[in-house]
Every structure is written in structure tokens, then in C-alpha cells.
Amino acid sequence: MSGARGAWPQRALALLVPGTFTTSAFMDSSGEKQPSPVSSPSSMFADGANDLVAGILLDRFWWSLGFEKVAMGLLTLVEDRPTPKAVYNWRVYTAASVASWAACMIGYDSAFIGTTLALPSFAEEFKFAEMSKAHLNLTKANIVSVYQAGAFFGAFGAYASSHYIGRRKSLILWTLIFIIGAGMMLGANGDRGLGLIIGGRVLAGLGVGGCSNMVPIYISELSPPAVRGRLVGIYELGWQVGGLVGFWINYGLEQTMAPSHKQWIIPFAVQLIPAGCLLIGAVWMRESPRWCLSKGRREQALKDLCWIRNLPEDHPYIMEELEAIDAQVEHDRITVGPGFWKPFAALKQRKVQYRLFLGGMLFLWQNGSGINAINYYSPTVFKSLGVTEGFLTTGIFGVVKTVLTIFWLLYLIDRLGRTKLLMLGALGGSLCMWYIAAYIKIADPANNPSRDGKLTSGGISAVFFFYLWTAFYTPSWNGTPWVINSEMYSQQTRSLGQACAAANNWFWNFIISRFTPQMFSTMGYGVYMFFACLMLLSIPFVFFLIPETKGIPLERMDELFDMRPTYRAHPLLLERLKENEDVNVVIRDEKAKGEHNEMA
């Protein structure tokens, strides 16, 4: 018992493939703690460290570099119970990565459209020069915002599909809808007008809306609690990688191709690549065991759970997890009821309404940071700062976001937790926005460009604060609301809750994208002050209303959200879980002793 308890609550965990990394206090497949502690990467590649001499030499080398502290900081996680190392295997990471091709679709579509509309070849083919300023703003806003409108309805549609055909098949369905929409856009040209692009973006929006509902749920239901934030974070990383390509593709095309129909059609065609990768990868993916159990498919649930956890059916960890899911499903059937419509009846429950409110507000604050005004209209944003190389600066913005997302994914989300990140990001981001607003108010660089076309010292500082804002926003508000929303609902209401959360995201996305051109035209520097105020207001909201969720099993979320005060709920529940684990270990030991005595 002491060996098992010594591993709780913090242990170094293997991140990817069994046999690739081995650190101290690991448990083997039988659940027993390994006898030899590992203090540095010297034995990470031996999984047993048989070569003592080589191990000592490598230990000294890594210690001299100070590697141990960095490695342990990156790899230390909080667990709800002792967990076999086999659980943290390549299958669960690969499943999350394959599903996150959907996020690449979303990120790319969100990023490429703004710079595509700014391409001279696109503007010339669709005669933007002949439009009035108001008509042009309306046209651009419609092209961008119909995508969000489609995504809003797609998010709700995914609730129905996931209920009847499951998470995996739903992903395939909504990806096919996205592909149809992307194909429609490829048929557009100057003679046919913008109709095919607008109609195609509606269908593409439906597809990404459905995927934005499904992917966080699917990943969270597969994930061990200790790395759930990290695995759902892969979804956000996929979003940023797609966005990175979307930000840079038009810069590359503008630099290497003469203006032509082909120049602007290529970015529309690239949408099909991540969608195709998801379809191919979906053949390998397994269904969510939690969904299978909720449908009474126990045999399939057990088979898929054992495959994902890389453990045999009779392993205590599998048996405990299956029992916990069973208990939660039964509880939900009693309190909510089975069927398609019962979760809607659950909306009458105050605790469900409260969590829907929290989830929706998180996306209000996220969009209130200004991120989607920048994503969709980055050339306009950088022009307001006096930057003339909009495509290049936008590309750098994409790089910064992607790098910081990787840092958030590997180090922050499951170590610092969700709420601290949100509050820190909001405070720092707000201060940056205030500075940018003050600079534009005083210098008005868009209407008073420098004589040599270069940025002034004030302009350089404004760009610096813009990237500093990116550094605060990306590791906090960019992906964390998706993680929290994927965790906070019970099994019976999770699909509907995530549908509402995703729809909220796309609703506020639509509002921002639809009215950003008009806001910049009428408010000027006031746009940045508006976003700064909203970021400040989010801080007390998070502190008083959002409990920390890192390391808490999905089946204990009801308990977490019922505890008061909210900002103390997480440590109190972890202590309760620790006490319960002590009791369970004693029961298992007594049972094992009894069986041994009977055999004797």
C-alpha cells in the first residue's frame, strides 16, 4: 500500500510511447511501483537502466546542464489516483492528434480568408474597386461571417448526430459536409460572382461547427484525468497549426505568383488537405467507451477502453474506471433519463443552467479579447498600427501563436491549471490593449504615415505590445475555454452542453466578424479600449465562478461544481479523492489477504 500511495498525487509521467521515457515512481502493468528511481534522462532510453556505468555518466552530464529540474517541471502532473504508466501510451495521443485534424480545418479557414480578401487578384476578379466603402465592408463581412453562422447551427446539429451514431461517425459526417462546402468554393470566379464562395462557406461552417462540438468531447472522454488538459490541448494546437498555414499561405503566394485566378484559388483548395487527413485517420479511431456504455454497448466499451489504456480487461485500473463510468451513467439515467430529448428536460435543473451560463460566458470573454477581429481582419488591424507589410506581420503573428500554444500544451495547462492561466492572460492582455489604444489615439499612424514608410519608434513599441498581447492571450484564453467546456458536464448532458458551448463560441465569433469593419470605421482606437475593458471584467468572473478542473475525473465534476467557495473547491476535492483512494487500497488489500487465506 505504501508503494502505491507514495506515487500520489504528483509523479513523473511518460508522455508519448511506452519504453521511450521512464521516470521515477512509475508503476508497471500490474500496478506495482518500479523499484529503481530514475533521477534524470540517463535511463529514459533504457526503460530499466541496466547499464549502470553509462547511466552514471549520463546522469552527471544531464545534471550539469540542469536538465533534471526542467524535465521534472515539464513532466510532473497531478493524478486523481495511482495510474499505470501503460495508460499514458501512444494510442491515446495519436487518437487525439488524428481527431485534431478537424481543428486544422477550423484554424486554416479562420486565418486564410482575411488575407485572401486582401489579395489584389481576388479584389480585381470580383471588382472590389467598383464598390463603395460601405458596400465593400458589407461584402467582406458577409463572406467572413456566414461561416460562423453555419458553424453555429452545425454545433447544435452535432448533438443529434453524436446521440444516434456516436462521436467517431459524427466526425466523419461533418467532415464530409465541410468537403462539399470547400469544393463549392473552388467553382467560383468573376463571372459567377461570389455566390459559390458564400454558399460554400455556409456548408464549410456547418462542418466545422459540428467538428468543434465533437472533437473536445471525444478527446476528453478518451483521456486519463492527469493529461486531459494536454490532450484536449492538442485540439487547440491543431487550430493554431492550421491558422499558421492560413496566415502564411497568401504571403507566399503574393511573393511568388503574379496576380491571377490561380493565385487566390489555391488557398481555397488547401482546405481539403486536413479534411482528407481526418477522413483517412478516422478509419483507425475507436469509439468513445463512455458513449458506448451510455448506449448499453458494454462489450464494445470494454474492448475500446482496454485498447486505449493498453491494459488487459481484468486490470484493477480498467475495472475501477469502468465501475466509475457505469455509476455515472446510471446516476444520469435516474436524474436526467435516457433518450434524445431527456437532456433538454435537464435544462430545467439549475446546476445544468449554471454550467451552460459559465461555458457561454467563457466564450464571450474569449471573443471579447479581440482575437477574432485580428484573425479575420489582420490586415486592417496592422494598418491601424501603421504597418504596411500586413501579410508578413500576420504570418509572424501566426508563428508566435503556434509556438506559445505548444508551450501551453506541454507545460501550462495541466501544471498551472485552467483558472490561473485565464486570470493572468486577461490582466496582461488588457494592459497591452490599453497601450495600443493610447498610441493610436495620440499618433493616428493609419492617417499619418511616416515619410520613409518605416515604423516610428512609437509604432515599433505598439507592434511589440501587440505581440506581447499575443503572448498573454495564447497560453490562456486561446484554448482553455474549450478544455473547461469539454470537462464540466455529466455523460448524459455532455453532448448537449458542448453543443451549446460550441454554438456560443460561433455566435460571438459571428458578432465580432460581422461588425469588426464597422467598429474600426466608427470607433478607431476605441476598439482596443473596448477589448481591454472586457478582458479586465473576465478576471473576477473566473476567480469567483470557475472552479479549477485539472486532474479531476469527469465523473466527479458534479461534486466539484457543487462545492463552495469555488476558488477552494479544487484542493478540497483532491483531498477527498486522496482519502477515498486510501480506503480503496485498504479494501483491496484486505480482499487479497482473504483470498490468500482461503487458498491456504
Mean pLDDT: 78
Calculate Rg over CA atoms. Answer: 25 Å
- The total of beta strands comes to 2
Instruction: Please give the order of strands in the largest beta sheet.
Output: 1-2
* Tally of domains: 4
CATH first level of the largest domain: Mainly Alpha
Number of helical stretches of at least 4 residues = 26
CATH topology of the largest domain, which one?
Growth Hormone, Chain: A
Shape: globular
Share of residues in helices:
over 70%
CATH superfamily of the largest domain: MFS general substrate transporter like domains
Uncertain spans, ≥5 residues at pLDDT below 50?
1-75
Order of helices and strands: HEHHEHHHHHHHHHHHHHHHHHHHHHHH
The CATH level-2 architecture of the largest domain is identified as Up-down Bundle
> DSSP strand (E) fraction?
under 5%
Q: What would the keywords be for this entry?
A:
two-stranded antiparallel ribbon, disordered N terminus, Growth Hormone, Chain: A, 2 strands, 600 residues, mainly alpha
